[in-house]
Amino acid sequence: MEQNYPIKRIIDDKGILVDESYEQTINEELVKDLYYNMLRIRTYDRKSINLQRQGRLGTYAPFEGQEAAQVGSALALEENDWVFPTYRDHGATLTFGKSMTRTFLYWNGRVEGCVPPEGRNIFPPAVPIATQLPHAAGAAWAEKLRGTKNASIAYFGDGATSEGDFHEGLNFASVFKVPVVFFNQNNGYAISVPMEKQMNSKTIAQKSVAYGMPGVRIDGNDCLAVYFETKKAFDRARNGDGPTLIEAVTWRKGAHTTADDPSKYRPAEQGQHIVDPMERMELFMKNYGYWDEQWIEEMKEKTMNEVEEAVEEMENYPAPNVEDVFDHVYAVMPKQLAEQKESYLAHLERR
Amino acid sequence: MTKMKESSHEEVMTTQMTMIQAINDGMRLLLKEDERTIILGEDIGKNGGVFRATEGLQEKFGADRVVDTPLAESGIIGTSIGLAVNGFRPIAEIQFLGFIYPAYEQIMTHVSRIRMRSMSRFTVPMVIRAPYGAGIRAPEIHSDSTETLFTHMPGIKVVCPSNPYDAKGLLIAAMEDPDPVLVLETMKNYRSQREEVPIGKYTVEIGKGNIVREGSDVTLIAWGAMIAIAEKAADQAEKKGISCEIIDLRTLYPIDRDMIAKSVQKTSRAVIIHEAHHTGGLGNDIVSIINDTSFLYLRAPIERVTGFDVPVPFFTLEEHYLPTPARVVEGIEKVVHF
Ligand SMILES: Cc1ncc(C[n+]2csc(CCOP(=O)(O)OP(=O)(O)O)c2C)c(N)n1
């Protein structure tokens, strides 16, 4: 079965182009776009970990090592597509247009962090594992019924494939042949549980067979492969050819969250041999004449500034509004809830 | 280690434990003393659980008895049913109560009624453990307090210890019970206090509350993390000359009706405190119990200080969701000055 799903690569660990069919399609603009976005989200990610350590953010789920998978897939989307991320996919949502300030706010215990900019269909991160897969199928179904060319993408981890919602989401999508891409980041672990204890199948891509949809296994640390394979899946979706399951094989370099201690379950040397996705892109850029030291320095400064500004904005954000505890639960607040709100606000007044 | 007087003639060896240590110790004993015991859940083996409740247990008892399962709550509970009807005694861990919902069907339609549907031919003596509750700045959805989804379910018992001693004793009692028991563990109390806990096996009877403070003017009824809130409120009320009796319910189904009735008949006033949502909260059942048993003793309508009818907010606002000592004191003053 594993042989049926060879890992697709466009560039190898040394940054050499191994799929020559892409020689003409790869251009400077794309390469720089991919690299810049990886740099940007990595800067954001590392900053978040630091802020958490300083007590300036709550528990945080880092994604270092998964930048290529998140950026490559997110850049393959069109403006009106739908994105259904998990708590680890803020690299993808930032790339697709979510505000950085709001992303910080999310990790700082602010519901404002769930709200995407106007015109961007980014769902709040799915915290209960795998629940977002049927949502993505449903949103795609609506686009199909309406006859648009829009599609949706569901991000999920290897652990999510064990939940019933994984099956239900894929099955609905294929039964109704809806334009959705199920984008799995197989980062090796679901908290402490390695893939081989999570499932008895050697790949996640092969699960597509059961649903009669294409399954693609890609090197998730090869940003170009992720980008082009996701694009292909979206092309199929937009052409009415239904869903695709993509397995992007990657690696979670850090902890599951800042509250997790991987030394409990993962040998320190595991994964050390995996070439970092940004490093790999750097090698590629150097090999093929895309590397521009001055541009890199400019981009580093730009991303640093953007991150610092977003932190400042997050920290100076208006204090949370107590009324928000009550106000967004119903369109029209039922009387009994209105009474609870009124009596609580009166209580705060008295104090 | 110290010796604690259990009863007049028995001396029991005890040691200082937090609630999480007491739970760990309870499970260790259950694994050691009954080879049918099997623990299953997400990240409970090698990792020792996300709260370290099962720390060291897989190392000691092996991966066949302390099992890291795939990430699937329905699978965990569904297979626990199969294990239980076929001779094992599962302790299933659900990582957070907020993630139990995929297993709701298994619990509602099978765990709770296999005995009835098979006229006791099949039974599922098993324990489901689930950390729950707000107030620890957890990410969203980790903070639910939805105990009444389970107290409303005939066929399963629900317990909710608030301290190390009760946690171990109730866990062991739950395992000895012939019926399924859901053990709700208040995350806020996992490491909040240490106390002397017996080293060996002991049980805290399911269905029995505990009077944690005696008083004469008003009865406060609470459980889990709300016990600490009730105690703080009672301290403040005492400064105002009001004497509070506090009942730690400990078991949410079946409720200790006698203890509630006896206390309320003595104090003639009651304030119920729970962090679950107001509507459909267990407070309503307690009001009915008082109504049924003690109506004519009451000198004031019963007060309920609860979470609101809203999803538990993100952590910057969770303090506004949870009952506070100040809100409880207002409730106390309201019933006392009625
Ligand atoms: C229904 C449900 N059960 C349990 C959890 C607790 N939990 C959070 S993340 C996680 C592991 C998820 O692993 P995976 O799907 O591989 O994604 P990754 O975190 O590796 O990105 C678990 C068990 C949850 N959030 N939801």
UniProtKB/TrEMBL annotation, chain A:
| Reactions catalysed, as given in the entry | N(6)-[(R)-lipoyl]-L-lysyl-[protein] + pyruvate + H(+) = N(6)-[(R)-S(8)-acetyldihydrolipoyl]-L-lysyl-[protein] + CO2
> Which Enzyme Commission numbers does its entry carry?
1.2.4.1
Q: What broad class of enzyme is this?
A: oxidoreductase
Dehydrogenase E1 component domain location: 38-322
Q: Which cofactor does it need?
A: thiamine diphosphate
Assembly, in brief, is: Heterodimer of an alpha and a beta chain.
What name does this protein carry? Answer: Pyruvate dehydrogenase E1 component subunit alpha
Q: Native species of this protein?
A: Paenisporosarcina quisquiliarum
Record gene name: pdhA
TrEMBL record, chain B:
On the tree of life, the source organism's domain of life is: Bacteria
Q: Which UniProt keywords apply?
A: Oxidoreductase, Thiamine pyrophosphate
Name of a matching Pfam family: Transketolase_C
Q: Does the keyword Phosphoprotein feature in the UniProt annotation?
A: no
Question: GO MF annotations for this entry?
Answer: oxidoreductase activity
InterPro entries recorded for this chain?
THDP-binding, Transketo_C/PFOR_II, Transketolase-like_Pyr-bd, Transketolase_C
Co-factor requirement: thiamine diphosphate
Q: Which SMART domains match?
A: Transket_pyr (SM00861)
Enumerate the spans annotated as Transketolase-like pyrimidine-binding domain: 17-192
PANTHER family the record matches? PYRUVATE DEHYDROGENASE E1 COMPONENT BETA SUBUNIT, PYRUVATE DEHYDROGENASE E1 COMPONENT SUBUNIT BETA
Protein name, please? Alpha-ketoacid dehydrogenase subunit beta
Could you tell me which species this protein originates from?
Paenisporosarcina quisquiliarum
